[in-house]
Amino acid sequence: MAAGLAVLWFVAEPAATWAGGWTQTWNLYHYVVGVRFFGELGYDDLYVATLEVDQRHDDAFRQADVVRDLRTYEKGRRAVVIGDYDVDAALSPERQEELDTVVRALRESDPKASWRDMFRDRGYNGTPAYTAVASVVARALPVEHATTRWLSTTLDPLMILVGLAAVGWAFGTETTAWVVLLLAVFPGTNWRWFGGFLQYDWLAALMIAAAGVKRGKPELAGIALAWATASRLFPAALLVSLLIPDLRPGGDRAFARRLVLAFGVALLLFVGVGCLTPRGPGAWLEFVPRILHHSEQHVLGDQRIGWRHFALWTTPDDLREAVLHARAIPIWAGVALGLGAWGAAVWRRGREEALQLGWVVVFLVTVSSRYYWAGAALLPTAGLPRGRWLAVGFATTAVAHAWARSLGADKHGAYLGVDLAIALLLVVWTLSTVVTPDTDDDR
């Protein structure tokens, strides 16, 4: 009942709006245009190519006077960022026309979209594996046409439904209801479930992985975790956490070997798929330094979740980098202490809970966009009865966010409230796991 009410309250409006034809222009521009033109533009030239092509046609973006340089991540005057970039050297006349057609279709489909802000974002940063797969889908469902544009946005809801079906198959009705409840109430994601392009493939994969673990199917879990990792990287932390219970004395080493073998073979396959983009194997060589730089800059942004971002607290934008360096020792000491507690906790638990305890590592080591933490809606799959209070604890993120906003907090401040709620939940969960014995219910 509670899950149903939460879905109606938090999800009904965005679902109805999407059903009426609405799509997320911001998302489609970065992820559809990003993958369709990845061969020529890579990770660095999406914005400058778009602006140059537009200037030759409609000049609709003439007011985009400040844009982000995707090579340095610094914002600058448009003319300075574009510099001596030669769009003719990058794109043939036919591809320039295609780019203009795609962007114009997106612009006309959502006249209210803020393109000035869009060009100040951080570009397209998908892995080559994700890019190779997504580019096939993007070409099959071109966003230039209203019908196929909308159809391309049905994939995320469908994948989530498949994932929930897997959770239901493995864990039953109550746990699935808790997961649905958390997916609905987690702040900042209810409008993201709809209208976007292939944003939640990794979440469906994590749901299937959890189901595979519960059902004793290591190959299924390994393949699903391999795709989630190839697509978004951070799920590798969940794999490490999952392996620990079977490495302790009395653990099922055969399960661990089968899991690692399936994961390794599948990951190699997905890395190979990533070599099939027009940029070839070199796409991975471009991606690694790109994502490292992106991650460093990501910490300093707004609406992020993670220990290092939380450590900035209310620091103003222009001081965050300096403060982060000044607090480096206590920040990384906190990471070390947290990982020690996590290791002690995961050593004592069964596989299902160990998999979800991987979110402790994600919080400590990474700083991610808020929507990735929708994956923590799977905390109830850690096992009942503990899963119930984990669900209640995670639901407090919605309360923290609403409370912060009611006090007039900006987006950065509101998500610090979410950071705090998640940090408290993970601390209580980890410490309680260390001091309490394992139980059959949690295995």
Task: Summarize the SSE layout with pairings.
Blueprint: H1 2-19, H2 25-36, H3 38-41, H4 46-56, E1 66-68, E2 75-77, H5 78-82, H6 87-90, H7 93-109, H8 115-118, H9 128-140, H10 146-152, H11 155-171, H12 173-185, H13 201-214, H14 218-232, H15 236-247, H16 253-274, H17 282-298, E3 304-305, H18 307-310, H19 320-326, H20 328-346, H21 351-365, E4 368-369, H22 386-406, H23 411-435
Antiparallel strand pairs: 1-2, 3-4
Please summarize what this structure is:
The protein is mostly helical and 443 residues long. It has 23 helices and four strands. It has a two-stranded antiparallel ribbon with strand order 1-2. A two-stranded antiparallel ribbon has the order 3-4.
Quickly list its features.
4 strands; two-stranded antiparallel sheet; 443 residues; mainly alpha; 2% strand; 23 helices; two-stranded antiparallel ribbon
